[in-house]
Amino acid sequence: MFQRLFGRERQANRAITEALYAQIVAAARQTVFYSDWNVPDTPLGRFEMLSLHMFLFQHRLRGEGGAAAEVAQVLIDEFFMDVEHSLRELGIGDVGVPKRMKKLAKMFYGRTEAYDDALERDDRDALAAALARNVRPDAGVWPEASQLAAYVGDANTGLAAQQSESIVSGTVTFPIAKVG
C-alpha cells in the first residue's frame, strides 16, 4: 500500500494524467478556432474551448468502470485545478476564487448537459445553437458555429473509436480543426 501511494505507480499515474491533460489542452488551443472560427481569444473563450474538449473526453469515458472511470475523475479534477490556477493568475484573490469557481463549474456542467443532449440525438443544428449560445453569446449570429459543431461530431466519432486501454495509458487523439 505504501509503495502504491508514494512509489512508482503514483508517478506513472501522474505522468498519464499530465499527458492526457496536455493533449486535451493542445486540442482546445488549435489556432483555427480563434483565427478562422472566431472563438474569442480571451480567458473566457479559451475556457469555452477547454470545457468543450474536456466534455468530449468525459463523454467518451462515461459509463466505463475501473481505470477509465478513475482517469475520467482525475482529469476533471485536473481541469478544475487548472481553472482555479488561471483565476489566480488573472488576479482574482482568495476571497473571490470560490465564488468564481462555483460559477464556472455551473457553466461547465450546464454546457455539458446541452452538448450531451445534442450529441445523443445526433442533432447538429441543436449542437451548433448550444455552441453559439455558449461560445459567442454576444455575436447574435455566429456562422462558424456549424463548423465547430461538425468538428465536435467528428471528435466524438473519433474518440468513440479509440480503445479505452490506449486512453488510460495516456494517449487521446482529437481531430485537427480545418478551415472550410
TrEMBL record:
Query: Which residues does UniProt assign to the signal peptide?
Result: none
**What is the superkingdom listed in this entry's lineage?**
Bacteria
Which residues does the UniProt record annotate as the domain Ubiquinol-cytochrome c chaperone?
A: 36-174
Question: Which InterPro entries did the record assign?
Answer: Ubiq_cyt_c_chap (IPR021150), Ubiqinol_cyt_c_chaperone_CPB3 (IPR007129), Ubq_cyt-c_CBP3-rel (IPR014569)
Family of this protein: Belongs to the UPF0174 family.
Q: What is this protein called?
A: Ubiquinol-cytochrome C chaperone family protein
